Amino acid sequence: MPSLWVDADACPRVARDIIVRAAERTQTATWFVANHQVPLPPSPWVKPLAVASGFDAADDEIVRRLVPGDLLVTADLPLAQEAIDKGAAVMTNRGEALDRSNIRARVQMRDFMETMRSSGEHTGGPKGYSDVDRREFANALDRWLAKNR
C-alpha cells in the first residue's frame, strides 16, 4: 500500500486531525515531515519526521523519500511539482488534486503573485480554513485511500 506524506510545516491542525484519523482507520503508513516537532498521538501508523532547520529541508526530505504511487498533502506548489514529477499523487489540504494537467499553471500564478507582492502590491493571504474546506479535504482523502488500498 502506498504511504501518505504530509508537508506538516503549514498543515492546518484540523487537516492534521483528519489525516491522523484516516491513517488509523485505514492502517496507512503516514509521515508528518517538518522542521519542528509536530504534536501527534501515539500510533503505529502515524509518525513525525523532524528535519534540520533550513530552507526547503523538509521539502527535500519528502522528495527524497517519496516513491511513485504515494500521496503527498501540501499547499507548497513547487514541492507538489517535484512530487508529481516523481510519480506521486498530490492534494492540497483543502482536497484539491494537483497533477500534470494543472500544476504548471498553478506554479506560474504563484510566481506571478509573488512578483506582485515583491513590488509592493497587497494581494492578501490565503482564505481561512472553513467547514467546507474540512469536508472537501476529508472526502478527497477518503476517496484516495479507498482507491489505493
UniProtKB/TrEMBL annotation:
CDD domains noted in UniProt: PIN_YqxD-like (cd18720)
Descriptive protein name: UPF0178 protein SAMN05216571_11395
Pfam families: DUF188
The organism's place on the tree of life at top rank: Bacteria
Record-linked InterPro entries: UPF0178
Family of this protein: Belongs to the UPF0178 family.
